[in-house]
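QA checklist item 7 of 12: single-chain prediction sanity check.
[x] sequence parsed
[x] length recorded as 297
[x] structure emitted
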Amino acid sequence: MNSKVQYISNAGITVGVLPEIGGTIVFVSKNGSENLIKSNPELWDVTKKPIVDEHTDFVPYCGHTVWLGPQKEWWIHQTINEERQRAAAEWPPDPYLYIAEYSVIQRSESAIHIKGPHSPISGVTIEKEIAVNPDGSVFIQAIVTNTGDKPCAWDVWHNTRFDGMCKMSVSAVEENVRIVPVLSEASTEMPYELQNETFSYCPQKPPKGFSERSSKTFIYPKEPQISIATGKFQFQIWFEMHKKNLIHPEQGLVEIYNHTENGDGNDLLEVEYHSPYTTLGIGEEMKSWEVWQIIDL
């Protein structure tokens, strides 16, 4: 396999980044553990990735990526793929942001700074600064710059994937939780708990008569932290709180997607965080960060 994962480490924590594939974080380990996040190593071979252009379809690399929100506007501001523009397509995400090659600006044993190309679809360029700190925490910052020829408006969307059977929790009151089950002849909703001002999915395999379970939840949390039980560890994602009215109404400050199938390979938990929806003039930038802490259970 022609994999070009670049590993950074400190204090027993190792993080693997693939600059050639969107600067995706594909590996996180503590003290030599197995990978704590969900990614697809069979796709790490950079020689097999598709050509990146306005027709590129989605490839499920998983791991941690950065998108832009709102999702409903992904394809409406561009003119190079008229079919997706007319359809106001909500899928796939901008391939220039999540799959194109990022250049390494600077790196050390414990940190890496990478920069992606200009996207003619979204009108921006994304840089990522990823560092493993001396205390073992992991800092991830995305810097989004308007490199187009007109103002644009987006939020920064961090998306970290885990195995779909992992249990997560986030503090929230009921009126700040909106649950959208994915219902069809094949799909039913994912069970959840909302008790003691804490929201958690209760991941289960589909019941008889269904091939999958899926639900998406939009949350304005009480505290800026999400916990995920993965392996023998609690994976905590910390972020910056923002006023509710600064978040695009079609998104959530926190979003959680949980999906399971009858087989084992496609179970998925997506843990997502959105920055404020911001208008950027030409050359202007916005930043958004997360901090990960990995605690023994």
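[x] summary fact logged: The CA atoms of residues 258 and 269 lie 5 Å apart.
[ ] second reviewer sign-off
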